[in-house]
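User: Structure please.
Assistant: Input sequence and predicted structure:
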Amino acid sequence: MPTFLLLGSGEFEPWSTEVERLAMTGAAGDGSVVILPTASASEGDHVFERWGRMGLDHYADAGVPAEVLPVKVREDAFREDLAARAEAASMIYFSGGKPSKLADVLRDSPLLAAVRRAMDRGAVYAGCSAGAMVASRERNAEGRGGTSWLFGLGLVPHTSFGVHWDRAARIPGVQWWLTSRLPDDTWFVGIDERTAILGDGEHWTVHGARGVTIRHDGALTRVETRASFATGRA
């Protein structure tokens, strides 16, 4: 079964060390983490490099070998050397930024194929903010506007993920507007800030500061940290 670690915000901060260790327990690979700040690349090299340095410092403090992969544009996702490096790692970590940017770089690329192969043999897919959102189900094949996330890569084929979900609640109507764009058969999981979910795509546990909000078949369920929940297949 695949392993997903999805964070609502707060990548490379001390709170996430515990759940990252848990995620990597028994993970297949060379024991390292590869960090891809790809979603921030459109904001400039200085932003990309800042996120990369934060990741390297974070894992150095935890005693985990880590490397930043320089994937900034779509052409980089077609480099065989970068795809091979991602496939060898025990955890592949996509940090925050613009989900549409990250999806456009990765979709149908050798790098994404390598990530899928790594997951199939037991590596962890980790994503924070944009990195979590692109794990969502793919847009409806018929391409109807306004019915699903535009950036889902289908890593979790039956679920869509929202992030910064408690912050979104402070703006009237935003949570409703975001979830109203999803097909009726979709499971939706809104992940609060500095909160993570760890699971196999169907069975999850909540970690960190807050909790998650689940929507399915018109019903809303709240799950707090340290609790478990399931998202069944559509």
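The helical segments are 17-24, 45-62, 80-88, 99-106, 110-120, 130-133, 165-168, 174-180.
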